[in-house]
Design a protein that fits this description.
mainly alpha; 2 strands; 77% helix
């Protein structure tokens, strides 16, 4: 039981660090007069993804034995799975709950160009990452080449995003800086200290998390890959996606869905590329099944977006069915370590 308590505590430390980091980089963007797009779509996106980024790195680099790679790969593949299924389902539930206060009802009217670009990028690049996992070890050079393609693709995506103005419904205010509540614009040194403290919390929490998940997996006989595939993304991604619930209630649909699809783009490119570079990236059948479920949910949203120019609450709820299929596959032993 103490190991489970450490697991919960480590997740709390990680999420605290992520909150401090996102707040800090937003203030850094304001202090150094960076554009709203640069702060929200690049700095904040990276900050939000830090827990999911640090955990596989810690697991792969510092954990001993094959369990480290299993935890790392499970965390890498679990984040896109959760975002395209469970996070979308939660957003759909929010649309249903707040439909009476929304002028568009159950229609989710988000920026079409941003959404279609994010989803198409995700499906192409994530497919490349999955296919790289089927390449035999003797053709390792091709895996490295695919990883490099994924990094370059994300750089291109960021460039495109920063040079094309996004049609956001409104601009949100930055919460007070935690290290300088009494300053309208806090000193840069204090914001910098907050960011450094956040990074320390995230790294320390990730280290505790990897250690405890290894022990829990051994104690209860659950494959580390499966445990990481389920627990890690829910714990590190889903709480922050409740921002989408708030934005849906305020009819800020572009922010609500962009919050998810932007994270999907980051999680399908740079993070799997790290997995390719740091491991032999040999995916098992369970990994391929979870990837197919992920791509299926994303493709479903993309098809409706292209045909209807919007996404309905029903389609978002249907994404939850894909996650239910994934859980059934896990509990029936179809997806294993």
């Amino acid at each position: 039981m103490s190991d489970i308590a450490i697991l919960v505590i480590s997740l709390g430390i990680i999420l605290l660090g992520a909150e401090l980091f996102v707040n800090g980089v937003e203030w850094l963007g304001k202090i150094f007069d960076l554009s709203e797009g640069a702060v929200g779509s690049v700095l904040a996106a990276v900050g939000t993804a830090l827990p999911e980024t640090i955990i596989p790195i810690i697991a792969i680099v510092f954990a001993r034995g094959p369990q480290g790679s299993e935890i790392g790969i499970g965390a890498i593949l679990g984040a896109p799975l959760m975002l395209s299924t469970l996070a979308m389902f939660v957003t759909g539930m929010a649309v249903i709950i707040f439909r009476k206060r929304r002028r568009t009802g159950i229609k989710v009217i988000a920026d079409y160009s941003s959404m279609s670009r994010d989803l198409s990028f995700f499906m192409i690049v994530f497919t490349a990452a999955v296919l790289a996992g089927a390449i035999p070890p003797e053709f390792r050079g091709w895996q490295i080449l695919i990883g490099a393609f994924m990094v370059v693709s994300y750089i291109w995506y960021v460039y495109t995003m920063l040079t094309e103005e996004r049609d956001l419904e409104s601009e949100s205010e930055i919460p007070p800086c935690y290290f300088a509540r009494h300053h309208e614009t806090p000193p840069a040194i204090r914001v910098g200290l907050q960011v450094l403290l956040a990074l320390f919390c995230i790294i320390m929490g990730a280290n505790l998390f990897v250690h405890s998940i290894e022990i829990v997996a051994l104690t209860y006989g659950v494959p580390a890959f499966v445990l990481a595939l389920i627990i890690t993304p829910i714990a590190t991604e889903l709480p922050e996606k409740f921002n989408s619930v708030i934005w849906i209630s305020r009819e800020k649909d572009t922010l609500a869905l962009g919050n998810i699809t932007g994270a999907m783009v980051f999680q399908c490119s740079l993070i799997p590329a790290l997995g390719i570079f740091l491991t032999d990236w040999q995916l098992n059948s369970g990994a391929f099944i979870s990837a197919i479920i992920t791509l299926g949910a994303a493709a479903l949203l993309y098809v409706q977006l292209i045909n209807k120019k919007h996404i309905s609450a029903g389609m978002l709820l249907l994404c939850g069915v894909f996650y239910a299929v994934f859980l059934l596959a896990v509990f029936n032993g179809i997806i294993t370590g």
